[in-house]
Amino acid sequence: MRKTHTAGALRATDEGKSVILAGWVHRRRDFGGLIFVDLRDRYGMTQITLDPQRVPAEVFKAVEGIRAEYVIEVEGTVHLRPEKMRNPKLATGDVEVFATKVIIHNAAKVPPFPIDTDGTDVDENLRLKYRYLDLRRERMARNLTLRHKLIKHMRDYMDRNGFIEVETPILFKSTPEGAREYLVPSRVHPGEFYALPQSPQQLKQLLMVGGIERYFQIARCFRDEDQRADRQPEFTQLDVEMSFVDRDDVMALIETMLVQFTTEQAALHGKRLLYTPFRRLTFAEAMGRYGNDKPDLRFGMEIFDVTVATRDSQFAVFAGAPGVRGIVAPGCAAYTRKQTDELIEFARKEGAKGLVVLHHDPEGIRGSGAGAKLSEAEKAALIAAGGSKPGDLLLLVADAEGIALNALGKLRVEMGTRLKLADPNVLAFAWVVDFPMFTWDKDDSRWVPNHHLFTAPRDEDLDKFETNPGEVKGKQYDLVCNGYEAGGGSIRIHRRDVQLRVMSLLGLSLEEAYKKFGHMLDAFEYGAPPHGGIAPGVDRLAMLFAGEPNIREVIAFPKNQQAADVMLGIPSAATDKQLKELSVSVTL
RNA sequence: GGAGGCGUGGUGUAGUGGUCUAACAUGCUGCCCUGUCAAGGCAGAGAUCGCGGGUUCAAAUCCCGUCGCUUCCGCCA
Length: 588
Description:
Gyrase A, domain 2; 5-stranded mixed barrel; 17 helices; single chain; RNA-binding
């Protein structure tokens, strides 16, 4: 080890020590007769001072030539800075190192973008092309450190609770239910393919049949779907499965883990929890009150229902509608016609026929058209239901329940963002439970699983499978936070007969069921224990704790929205030789 | 597959028919400078305004097309 200290280590108490520091030149301040160099490494920054009276002329001359991002090694003595020259902004600001010897390990070209900023206003693809430079910025070092601490906490916590980490294969079987997969051609078996796992779901269930009882894995998952700010083609989950548990056991396990992490690492992320214990909502509540199955609970603005009060309205839009629901945008009564038109257009894009906008003035509720037609009783009902105050703006959708809740849910998020109602330093974790097991896919005319086809139904709903599938609720639970799905899990089916009934409902014949999932059905015939699990998303949790707007900021080498890596230039074409060996032909 | 936003020196922006021979900040280069820490001062280099076509006497600016990036919808068992 060439360094005696890191660039973030030295304090006033180190005065007089001979030290060797090494790292990158963050910035150089050259006074002609005196040079300061800010030496940076992952741990911090230390000021190196070059006084021509204390260093040989050739050392001084060499330092005159160094530039930002040069890699240097400095030998010198720690000096206490004179009182007036201390820098309280720097952890090492009480001291400086008087260099006696400087080695230039490597020069550096001028970086294509600044490194001494947080980087948020640099074009992201440029950052990604030179990711090795981008990672030098303090923010990225902090994010990767936070991610490491989170994963370490997960491993330690799971270990303490009797879980063992078991690796599962990356070369897995194609199971065309669910997300699109990445395929890997087999050379040994021409024309046949492996698939990368969307998650280790089936394997971890088989580990339960294998008697592992408590499994976890920091697992890489692959999904060939279009990207979003919170989605990458490959991502990481804390994959967990346990035997002989109910859903409350799984939820309590993860909740405690996250509460402990938040408390223990508060200095690193500065976030606080809004709900301890985590809030719990049913799917129906989440949809009815927030129009969203992963609501941002950092602010209110709940959806209210005035269907009954407006049934006999003189205002035709309300009277003729299957329902009337709305939200109150606080302090927005002064919105201009242009602004309210924007909101109407927004609601239309989300599928609503329109949006009724009412201004709540000191004199009461007004609004073009509707304001004049609504009775005093209706206006009073609106104010009461929405908790509206003078100065607020009421946004109402008169439409079928599903359409109205969706549009209002999206508007709620939009208004919350515009009005900055969500505290960025707060994490509002919550559990959403009692999801419907199946939803009817109109396009394909079939039932599809809401979660996945291994989720167990509530015991009391078992007999509704054949009569009323839409009514069946699953033993599923989603972990949500600040408007993101941070994880999902369920108690699984562990009996072959129940599993086959689910598969049958989903339209799989016995033959197909065995072809795709025979390994699971077989396993269930050899004493499969009741079991369940969950898979919190590591990237999303790291993003939330780091306060970042997308998961790329907490991944060292992420792919862009086109699923490409602009640094590596991938994906890229394969050679004819490779393709031939794999018996694969490209039909471009 | 669809919708919105963005694309102007290295970087981030301004400029939305003629005064643009393209501005500002920062970075970069050179010179001066012994207490700075976003150092300062002076001087300088650096842009065919994403690309292609069109309209016009005249296009960074208007129109059409196209490419790239990004956000969202679809998709994500």
